Amino acid sequence: MLRLVFTALLTLALPLTAAAETYDLLYRAAIDPDTGKARVEIRLEGDTLPSELDLNLSSGRYTQLESEQPLELDGDRAIWQPSAPSASLSYLFEIDEQKGSGSYDSRITDDWAILRSDKLIPPISVTAERGLRSEAELHLELPEGWSSALPYAELGQDHHYRLKDPGRRFVRPKGWMIVGRIGSRQDFIADVDAKIAAPLGEDIHRQDTLAFLGWNLPELKKVFPDFPDQLLVVSAGDPMWRGGLSGTRSLFMHADRPLISGNRTSSMIHELVHVATGIHGDDESDWIVEGIAEFYSLETLRRSGGISQRRYDQAMDELAEWGREAPNLFERRSSGPITARAVGIMRQVDEEIRDASGGKANIDNVARGLAEDRGEVTLAKFRRLAEQAAGGPVKALDRDNLGDEPG
């Protein structure tokens, strides 16, 4: 009888301890092409709110912060102390961001704006009760006739999105976004809601890009089955940065970048691998991050039939020759020669794992493991996953093989 009573009490208690208290978090961003700025408001509503938000303003793009709740400005920081049941903070955000080369990775014109949505909101450290979580949405206020595309599900209202970031208690928007007079093409590919969006009037091959994803994304998903269920590809020409940049569930690709380059690699697939893995290197492991992305830009094309085995082998030989210019992989940033040499290391790792496992495992097991963990990758972590797949040491990852000048 006592056991039954105890079990009943435990059953009643479980929902109380498991339930997480939530509050509403709404971001409003009014995009103004006349000023080149966005007026952003962060609004919190709920019975319990975070006690403090510490905003990092070091980029210099956030000005005119205002709130009716206590707000302290201290150099590059703003300390905000909201109080229930409702609190709001507003500021101006400078949209244009020009790189040293003169190109832009964030840009607004009279007709459109392209930027990372996570830049709209400064990095924030939050102090809150344990278990307190946000339910976040983003609402955009745009000039008449403008459209929007973000890697989130749009709710019933125009330009209103439900934000998601599993594992985060304070959810911020992330990934690329485009607003304005834009055109897009969209399709479901391997259960991924894929959209290609770009400003109207620019020479953007939206349907070609969608077809390219149709050939290659299914192969990529075999390696990374947890690939995001939404993907936004944003494209534009000059003066945007002339390359590719990945983001959460999204990427930017300059209009002039070919889907397959002359050396048979693909900047598009390279960035898709970054989207899939969500990894970054420590001070000496960027070569792993970039090497995996470049390796699979070739390997995916080979598997999908986009290039032949002969072309694949030629590309590998050319990268190996270029990689001779990199005597040391352990640099903070992976340059072209370092990445080229890293591709050869990935191929060696793949061959060793296949041989040691009798063909039962390959480098896919390693890449998949990195994508499952996400976050920071180190040589030790990469070696551990490779040795687990191989069932023993992987000589290609000996430190002497990575730091000495290749023979």
How does this structure look, described?
It is built from ten helices and 23 strands. The longest helix has 22 residues. A seven-stranded mixed sheet has the order 4-7-2-1-12-15-14, with no helix packed on it. It starts with a helix and ends with a helix. Helix 4 crosses helix 5 and helix 8 crosses helix 9. It is an alpha+beta fold. Helices cover 33% and strands 30% of the residues. Helix 3 links the parallel strand 18 and strand 19. Among the domains are: 136 residues, Sandwich (Immunoglobulin-like), CATH 2.60.40.3650; 125 residues, no CATH class.
Taking all Cα atoms into account, the compactness measure Rg is: 24 Å
Largest sheet, spatial ordering of strands: 4-7-2-1-12-15-14
- Output the CATH class name of the domain at 22-95 and 113-174: Mainly Beta
By CATH, the topology of the domain at 22-95 and 113-174 is Immunoglobulin-like
Quote the distance from N terminus to C terminus. Answer: 77 Å
Helix-and-strand structural type: alpha+beta
Q: Give the biggest sheet.
A: 7 strands, mixed
Unreliable segments of 5+ consecutive residues: 1-18
Q: Can you tell me the CATH architecture of the domain at 22-95 and 113-174?
A: Sandwich
What count of helical segments does DSSP give?
Answer: 10
* Beta-strand percent range: 25-35%
Q: What's the number of extended β-strand segments?
A: 23
Estimate the helix proportion, in percent. 25-40%
What number is the mean pLDDT?
Answer: 93
What is the 3D shape?
globular
